[in-house]
Design goal:
Alpha-D-Glucose-1,6-Bisphosphate, Chain A, domain 3; six-stranded mixed β-sheet; alpha/beta; about 450 residues
């Protein structure tokens, strides 16, 4: 399996991602970016310290100075990159992937991510072709820096609530612990699975899989909390349940935050990914903002945010991006903003979300298919009277329903999303669409 993905490097340890690859990555990253000072952090997976050592050997062999920020969340690594004025950063993590996986998320200066279209392809070629330079005359130095409290102090500037609201946080045994440890004094937190364990003994740290939220749902209702939050493996994504234990679509959290941001600061440009409910752009525009659709994926969203100077962006998978945080994710900020909204509105989270639940949708359906280009061609021939958008895969839109079909950027899957005005239309069109896809499944 190919380990160089659309937005990062990821694979099984040690068969695909190992110390040899990490060492070569350090050299190739240095050669491609020309970086002289780089931040490196890592998650709680058992293989992360070993990969860290080898990566740093590769970097310092090229004369690159390394700032070791240690065990951290991916948002903290982005923050360190931006605030320390370094030339880049590398986070060792496999994100939401389960036990046995690891990988690398690489950025240039100002937390600007590398992707396969912007750097990873060249780095892969250097390694595969053995075109790596020899060591520099003078090796780089390694310094250690604890930056978690500085991150916490920075996100606290968003606080506008005065009461310590009770929230349940499912850390999933991941570095979500590090993401919010500096702001725990703001809330009354009921923790779930806070022990750092990269073998994920309780459940996969992936809030997109609703079965992973069952413990959170029960704890929220048992504890009478105002909401529950669940981090993914490196805490750059978060899923939410309301005070009733009901799962909230992550796109609707985008709409809620966007509305509040615009109300607080005036008209802003907001990006939303193309899988989001139609309720999202409608809410943004009703509040007075400018809503722009974007393809899926953190690297392309961050690039588009920079181009449009967007204040905020949200993704159906639970990524939430802030211009003031170097156009990168911060789940700590999201928790704070939700508490601001709840306290100032005097409403529960379910009451705030209810007006946004205007449409019915399937959520993201994953299909294992072959010959995706031919499938999309046939769908175009079937839905000839639809409004077609090919921003990412293919979207077919009608007055009362729409769908998006796109190949995954991280897994060998076809992602399918359907939304309709009514439950009946949703059922009919989803059945129809899946029947058209079925001949291509394997």
């Amino acid at each position: 399996m190919k380990v160089f993905k659309a937005y990062d490097i990821r694979g099984h340890y040690p068969e695909q991602v190992n110390e040899d690859l990490a060492f070569k990555l350090g050299i190739a990253y240095s050669e491609y970016t020309g970086a002289k000072k780089v931040v490196v952090g890592y998650d709680m997976r058992p293989s992360s310290p070993c990969l860290f050592s080898s990566l740093v050997k590769g970097l310092t062999s090229q004369g690159v100075d390394v700032i070791n920020i240690g065990l951290c969340s991916t948002p903290i690594c982005y923050f360190a990159n931006g605030t320390l004025g370094v030339d880049g950063s590398i986070m060792i993590t496999a994100s939401h992937n389960g036990r046995g996986w690891n990988g690398f998320k690489m950025c240039k200066a100002a937390a600007d991510p590398l992707s396969y279209k912007r750097g990873l392809k060249e780095i892969e070629a250097m390694i595969n072709e053995g075109k790596l330079p020899g060591p520099a005359e003078k090796p780089g130095q390694i310094t250690e820096l604890s930056i978690g409290q500085k991150y916490a102090d920075n996100v606290k500037k968003y606080v506008k609530f005065s009461n310590r609201l009770k929230i349940v946080v499912d850390y999933g045994n991941s570095v979500g612990v590090k993401e919010i440890e500096g702001i725990l004094d703001l809330f009354e937190v009921i923790p779930l699975f806070e022990e750092l364990d990269g073998t994920f003994p309780n459940h996969e740290a992936n809030p997109l899989k609703t079965e992973t939220l069952r413990d959170l749902q029960k704890a929220v209702t048992d504890q009478n909390a105002v909401f529950g939050a669940a981090f993914d493996g490196d805490a750059d994504r978060c899923g939410f349940v309301d005070e009733k234990g009901e799962i909230i679509g992550m796109d609707l959290i985008t709409a809620l935050i966007a509305e509040d941001l615009i109300n607080q600061t005036g008209p802003q440009t907001i990006l939303y990914d193309l899988r989001s409910s139609k309720a999202v752009p409608e809410a943004i525009e009703k509040a007075g903002g400018k809503a722009y659709m974007t393809p899926v994926g953190h690297a392309v969203i961050k690039e588009n945010m920079r181009k449009r100077d967007a204040a905020f962006a949200g993704e159906l998978s639970g990524h939430y991006y802030f211009r003031e945080n170097f156009y990168s994710e911060s789940q700590a900020i999201v928790l704070i903003l939700l508490c601001n909204i709840i306290e100032h509105s005097g409403k529960t989270l379910s009451e705030l979300i209810e007006p946004l639940k205007k449409y019915k949708n399937t959520g993201e359906i994953n299909c294992k298919v072959k010959n995706i280009p031919e499938l999309i061609t046939q769908l175009k021939e079937h839905y000839t009277d639809a409004e077609l958008t090919e921003l990412d895969g293919a979207s077919f839109e009608y007055n009362d329903w729409w769908c998006n079909i796109r190949p995954s950027n991280t897994e060998p899957l076809l992602r399918v999303f359907v939304e309709a005005n009514t439950e009946q239309i949703l059922k009919e069109k989803t059945t129809e669409l899946l029947s058209l896809i079925k001949p291509f499944e394997f």
